[in-house]
Amino acid sequence: MSDVRTWEGPSARERQAILARTSTVAIVGASDNPARASYFVATYLLSTSPYEIWFVNPRASDILGRPVYPSLADLPGTPDVVDVFRKASDLPEVLDETLAAGARTLWLQLGLWDEDVAARAQGAGLEVVMDRCLKIEHARFAGGLHWAGFDTGVISSRRARGLPTA
User: Fold this and answer.
1) Which Gene3D superfamilies has this protein been placed in (predicted)?
2) Within a 10 A sphere around the Cβ of 88, how many other Cβ atoms?
């Protein structure tokens, strides 16, 4: 894997279209630890999105009161999007499982980038999103960025009166 990024992912409109036609999301690498990003994303998606969410983790049995499946092959249906929270070295294997599961989109979370995996996925007909958070993108298009603390209510870059300076 090279540090140089030459692959171009879908535009904002294309990502919005992916999310608009999505009804099921499998979160691979889902965690029951509230300090993990996958837990926060799952909490947001369950409470704010219209998606059916499936958790995939071979070492967990329950996350947020829902069943957890050991692999994509064990899901009760075909996910539209496979949202990946795994280390970069696991991505080729996750792609193999994604292809076998029949998903339409491979979505690699923030920090995950592998151009070889992306090229292989696209060659097999998958849409690919890399180094983007599905929760942030959903919130961006659904007007829910306040969930991540982005909407502070401050429109100006001016310092509020009465705040101490450094």
Assistant:
1) NAD(P)-binding Rossmann-like Domain
2) 14
Residues in Cβ contact with 80 at an 8 Å cutoff, skipping those fewer than 6 apart: 21, 22, 23, 24, 25, 103, 104, 105
Q: Which domains does the chain have, with CATH numbers?
A: 12-148 (3.40.50.720)
What is the model's pTM? 0.84
Burial (CB count within 10 angstroms: exposed 0-12, middle 13-18, buried 19+), residue 94: buried
Q: What is the pLDDT of residue 146?
A: 52
Place of tokens 């009465």: 162
pLDDT per residue as tens digits for the range 136-160 = 999 888 875 554 455 444 444 444 4
- CA distances to 63, 118, 144, 146 from 141, rounded to whole Å, are 26, 24, 8, 12
As a whole number of angstroms, the distance between CA 136 and CA 139 comes to: 5
